[in-house]
């Protein structure tokens, strides 16, 4: 798989790519929370951060998916959940890890995840998983994430499992 890296400076150029992959990933999901319109708000919010990073994966010139996020402000954490005392230092929030349906279950998600995190300068990484998606949560647990709580960041959002792991360097 070919990997491409992007920063905040590239956000405008890849916005449509991110939205199109989202649309393909959620094509059969009628929940308005997963609409393109709603997701475009989150793409713009996250990619407007100066420390935003993104990695996309490509096979034979077609997109496989992407992973993106940014380092939280000191003391920052997910809305609706207190930062665990066990999570010290700087924290990178993995906001999205999305794979188009034909590439799910092939290890591409892990490749993009790892490629994104290898350039992250943080002590820990955190993410949210829809608490009804047990297989996805188990996948992250196999990648050494621990569930540290639950959060419901907005009235129309699902209840999320808050997951975190320490980043080991060197």
TrEMBL record:
<dbReference type="InterPro" id="IPR016181">
    <property type="entry name" value="Acyl_CoA_acyltransferase"/>
</dbReference>
<feature type="domain" description="N-acetyltransferase">
    <location>
        <begin position="1"/>
        <end position="168"/>
    </location>
</feature>
<protein>
    <submittedName>
        <fullName>GNAT family N-acetyltransferase</fullName>
    </submittedName>
</protein>
<dbReference type="InterPro" id="IPR000182">
    <property type="entry name" value="GNAT_dom"/>
</dbReference>
<dbReference type="Pfam" id="PF00583">
    <property type="entry name" value="Acetyltransf_1"/>
</dbReference>
